[in-house]
């Protein structure tokens, strides 16, 4: 049996005529169609129901097994409307007294109603979909529905509308630039904005930026010291960079210098600031781990490692700049190495003893 199923997703039939849905059978469907046409002659669902009756009459004249029904959804809610259509299709199928396999032919008035196709297909095989629109407005509703979907989806809206908006700014910015004799600058700014947007979309920078902002927000609310430590460390890194550049200028003014010498000068002038930034971030992380109750003793190695590396790099760079001799270099290398070893062994032994005491306490 072929079931001609007329779909009214926004329930114009029920709202405008008071008919209880689903409507099943040739006579009842015709009565419903006349009632809807009388209530609102301009409603596109009128065409859907009459088209369903036309298909029914054509197939019935050929002595084919056919039935016609109208199912409706709800106004203003796609999810609930789809569910209601599915429930009404179940009601229609349960009312069919036939031993034949049932297939469906959907009759709709546009792409919006066709969104329920997967719902109906899960209940009954679909032989086809017949879309009914006014000839003078062919594809108009489908175009409208597509544009409505594009504008309703934030992801698609940002992808499509923002580049178009930037391109539309070209002309007014060019006019503005001509007033100040800077047309090239205005066009360059517009092109740069469009290029940066496309690059950010292609690399997914927007998602990463949203994640970073969310982490910062959660850190602020959670009172995490790491956030403050990172801000202070970034400031110290900037100061270290400035100090390193000043040292390069001083060294080049004294000796000229090559690339290795310039690199050694930068390290010599900035290492103390970089070390302070490393110690700050490590102490902030240690504080957060302690507050969270997940601190392990080996985490305390981090500040000592930073100090050890800073000592070694400072000595090596000073030696390259002839500001320190071999004794200082040897002492710094030995001291930095011993500091790292002592720190590692101390916290490793302490951690193992605490673990052993914990096991003994559990055994007792």
UniProtKB/TrEMBL annotation:
It comes from the Archaea. InterPro entries: DUF373. Coiled coil: none annotated. The chain crosses the membrane at residues 158-176, 182-200, 221-242, 262-287, 299-320, 326-350. Keywords: Membrane, Transmembrane, Transmembrane helix. The keyword Membrane applies. The keyword Aminoacyl-tRNA synthetase does not apply. PANTHER family: DUF373 FAMILY PROTEIN (PTHR38815:SF1), HYPOTHETICAL MEMBRANE PROTEIN, CONSERVED, DUF373 FAMILY (PTHR38815). This is DUF373 family protein.
């Amino acid at each position: 049996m072929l079931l001609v199923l007329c779909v009214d997703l926004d329930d114009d039939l029920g709202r405008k005529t008071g008919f209880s849905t689903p409507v099943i059978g040739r006579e009842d469907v015709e009565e419903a169609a006349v009632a809807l046409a009388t209530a609102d002659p301009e409603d596109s669902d009128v065409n859907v129901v009459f088209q369903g009756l036309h298909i029914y009459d054509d197939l019935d004249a050929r002595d084919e097994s056919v039935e016609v029904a109208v199912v409706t959804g709800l106004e203003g809610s796609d999810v609930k409307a789809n569910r209601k259509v599915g429930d009404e299709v179940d009601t229609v199928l349960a009312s069919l007294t036939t031993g034949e396999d049932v297939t469906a032919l959907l009759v709709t008035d546009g792409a919006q109603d066709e969104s329920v196709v997967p719902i109906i297909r899960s209940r009954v095989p679909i032989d086809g979909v017949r879309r009914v629109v006014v000839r003078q407005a062919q594809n108009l509703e489908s175009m409208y529905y597509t544009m409505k979907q594009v504008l309703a989806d934030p992801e698609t809206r940002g992808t499509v509308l923002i580049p178009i908006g930037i391109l539309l700014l070209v002309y007014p910015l060019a006019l503005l630039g001509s007033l100040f004799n800077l047309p090239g600058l205005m066009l360059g700014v517009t092109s740069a904005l469009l290029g940066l947007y496309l690059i950010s979309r292609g690399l997914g920078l927007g998602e990463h930026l949203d994640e970073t902002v969310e982490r910062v927000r959660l850190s602020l609310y959670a009172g995490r010291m790491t956030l403050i430590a990172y801000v202070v460390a970034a400031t110290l890194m900037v100061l270290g960079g400035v100090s390193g550049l000043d040292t390069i200028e001083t060294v080049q003014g004294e000796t000229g210098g090559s690339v290795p010498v310039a690199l050694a000068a930068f390290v010599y002038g900035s290492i103390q600031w970089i070390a302070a930034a490393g110690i700050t971030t490590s102490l902030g992380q240690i504080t957060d781990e302690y507050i969270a109750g997940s601190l392990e003793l080996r985490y305390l190695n981090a500040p000592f490692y930073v100090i050890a590396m800073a000592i070694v790099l400072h000595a090596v760079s000073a030696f390259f700049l002839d500001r320190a001799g071999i004794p200082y270099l040897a002492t710094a290398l030995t001291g930095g190495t011993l500091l790292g070893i002592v720190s590692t062994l101390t916290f490793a032994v302490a951690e193992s003893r605490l673990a052993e005491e914990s096991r003994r306490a559990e055994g007792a």
